[in-house]
Design goal:
single chain; alpha/beta; FAD/NAD(P)-binding domain; seven-stranded mixed β-sheet; 21 strands; EC 1.14.19.55; Flavin_mOase
């Protein structure tokens, strides 16, 4: 079936909702496509313990902030509830079960195809997310491993791993939190690190570190921000090399500008220092009962959880933009002059928080759409 719409939004996560809310406020027509069955679909599948890492004050959608009755760091189910109430307020009705297979330019229009429908639009706003596709590396011998092997995207809670030895591969925010939860009930918890990692406290002096980032980003040049960022990190985290964690040669703030999000620690480091979590080297290969690391040591584990991140991989359904995407399959601009009417939201990692960035950048996109039409 063919549909014609002025503005087509792909994805009903926070980016898609932000754009839809702004368009609704301006009485502009739009349609939302969502491959899942819910608003904020990805958050239905994340691990149960997940909370926002950013202050609720800076994590809300346009025009309707998160209520002040919510905790500072909002838990997963409350985030979902807030997004659903946002959608209800604006009477947003995404077409669910519509996974986009192709977006292409034809004349002055964009043609978006799913398995069942075709959508013709003047504008397409791609909001499929920074974390669209789980990244699952492969190691030699992996197929011989007899234990449980899963990506963190399918991890729910620690219950299935009680009294078992578990290796978490990767120490991003998800890996650090999963390891923290496992260390409370598992028989042994281990983290495999391939490279140095920046770790900062989620709270500084009783206040979210995001607030400091917003202030410093507004008043300091990059070089001064980096110096202060490194100083605060050293004062609050100390030297963790004795525990197998090495710090990169760039500050946490500089890492964010490179797309490398630091770990916002909520207790994992203390568990590592206490010996409840052991840090190991990178995996060289799997064995039938565990893994061998690059330093030659071996570890037998009942389960391996791959906290190895995600990729956006927009080139899979918008082939013509593939040459402009970075190694994660993300664009570096909100729009490009060579593709009029094609917009991207939710693919950057601002120093001051992804959700705050979505709110600010959604305004730029909608203002550009309205101004172009005028």
């Amino acid at each position: 079936m063919k549909h014609t719409v002025k503005n087509l939004i792909i994805g009903a996560g926070p980016s898609g909702l932000a754009v839809a809310g702004r368009l609704a406020e301006m009485k502009q027509p739009f349609l939302i496509l969502e491959k899942g069955q819910h608003v904020g679909e990805a958050w239905y599948h994340h691990y149960e313990r997940l909370h926002l890492h950013t202050d609720r004050t800076y994590s809300g959608l346009p025009h309707r902030p998160i209520p002040t009755t919510a905790p500072v760091f909002v838990p997963r189910l409350d985030v979902i509830k807030y997004w659903e109430e946002y959608a209800d307020h604006y009477d947003l009705k995404p077409l669910f079960g519509q996974e986009v297979r192709r977006v292409q330019r034809e004349g002055t229009s964009w043609i978006t195809s799913t398995a069942t429908d075709t959508f013709i639009s003047e504008n397409v706003i791609v909001c499929t997310g920074y974390n669209r596709v789980p990244h699952v590396p492969h190691w030699p011998g992996q197929e011989l491993y007899k234990g449980t092997l899963l990506h963190s995207s399918t991890y729910k809670n620690a219950a299935p791993f009680r009294n078992k030895n578990v290796l978490v591969v990767g120490m991003g925010n998800s890996g650090a939190e999963i390891a923290l939860e496992l260390s409370e009930t598992a028989g042994g918890t281990f983290i495999s690190l391939r490279s140095p990692v920046n770790i900062v406290r989620r709270d500084l002096g009783g206040k979210p570190s995001q607030l400091s980032a917003i202030v410093m980003n507004a008043v300091l040049p990059d070089w001064a921000y980096d110096l202060l960022s490194r100083f605060v990190q050293k004062r609050t985290m100390g030297d963790l090399s004795a525990y197998g964690i090495h710090t990169p040669d760039y500050a946490p703030s500089a890492g964010i500008r490179r797309g490398r999000i630091p770990v916002l620690d909520i207790g994992t480091v203390d568990r590592i220092k206490a010996g409840a979590i052991q840090v190991k080297r990178d995996i060289e290969h799997f064995t039938p009962r565990g893994v061998q690391f690059v330093d030659g040591t071996r570890l037998e584990v009942d389960a391996v959880i791959l906290a190895t991140g995600y990729r956006a991989r927009l080139g899979e359904f918008i082939p013509e933009v593939a040459p402009t995407l970075n190694e994660r399959g993300c664009p570096d601009k909100l729009w490009y002059p060579q593709w009029p009417g094609l917009y991207f939201l939710g693919f950057s990692v601002p120093l001051t928080g992804i959700l705050r960035g979505i709110k600010l950048e959604s305004k730029k996109i909608v203002d550009h759409i309205v101004a172009k039409r005028s």
